[in-house]
Design brief:
single chain, 243 residues, Rossmann fold, Arc Repressor Mutant, subunit A, 2 domains, two-stranded parallel sheet, 10 helices, 42% helix, disordered C terminus
């Protein structure tokens, strides 16, 4: 059962979302929060798994940070009208795992909540189409293997076992790879990996296109992770925009 908190200051939205989620057998909707104090209190005491955060004008970065402080494992979905790729990427860095446009059909809201709860990232096709192209860098077979393992969600110790090296060497390799590709952390490296993954998740001696702004990807839903690693990894899900 998915434990969900909804935050919106608009009464009509509150009523509509209550009707929508109450009809979903796999989603347990907590009382809709209409103010920030109530929202934070609910997150602190009830520890919902997912928060659907309605954004009326601009993203409240302070609120996103507070939500993460109250419940580090919480998955936040922004529900809004418009957002730029740059702000979307900033939202991801603040822990947001889904960005949902208010113009989408109601069933897409429910689907988004389910996907985010399952560990996937959710963004619209229209948003990802505006990303800035990155530069292309050729990686070695060893570096490609490292990208593959990070993309699969393996920890340093697990990577060391697979590659037959020490955990300390893995840290050194990752540090060098971050600098070479321009990734700031493992999460961004995984995004690059998912974006570039050829068939079979083998990057050996192939060019890798980096990110220079918002993480981009195919228009269709993506799950590039082998089944044995799906439970450990973060997957990308790019939603179809309603027309």
């Amino acid at each position: 059962m998915i434990s969900l908190t909804v935050y919106t200051s608009e009464p009509l939205n509150s009523i509509a979302l209550e009707v929508l989620f109450r009809s979903s057998e796999d989603i347990s909707l907590l009382p809709v929060a209409s103010d920030v104090t109530n929202l934070l209190s609910q997150v602190r005491s009830l520890k919902p798994q997912v928060v659907l955060l309605a954004v009326d004008t601009s993203v409240d970065w302070g609120l996103l940070n507070k939500l993460r402080e109250e419940s580090p494992d919480i998955k936040v979905v922004l529900w809004l009208h418009e957002i730029t790729p740059e702000l979307a990427y900033q939202a991801i860095e603040c822990g947001v795992r889904g960005i949902l446009r208010k113009s989408l059909a109601p069933e897409m809201i429910v689907k988004c909540v389910r996907k985010v709860h399952a560990g996937e990232l959710w963004f619209e096709k229209a948003l990802t189409q505006t990303f800035l192209s990155g530069r292309t860098i050729k990686v070695s077979k060893r570096e490609g293997e490292l990208i593959t393992l990070v993309t699969q969600g393996l920890k340093n110790k697990e990577i060391a076992t697979v590659m037959g090296i020490t955990e300390g060497t893995v840290k050194v390799y990752l540090s060098r790879l971050f600098g070479k590709i321009g990734a700031r952390d493992r999460f961004e490296l995984a995004l690059i990996g998912l974006r570039n993954a050829p068939s079979g998740m083998d990057f050996g001696n192939v060019p890798v296109r980096t990110l220079t702004g918002f993480p981009a990807g195919p228009a269709e839903p993506v799950d590039a992770t082998p089944k044995k690693a799906q439970s450990q990894s973060t997957r990308l899900f790019f939603a179809r925009a309603a027309h």
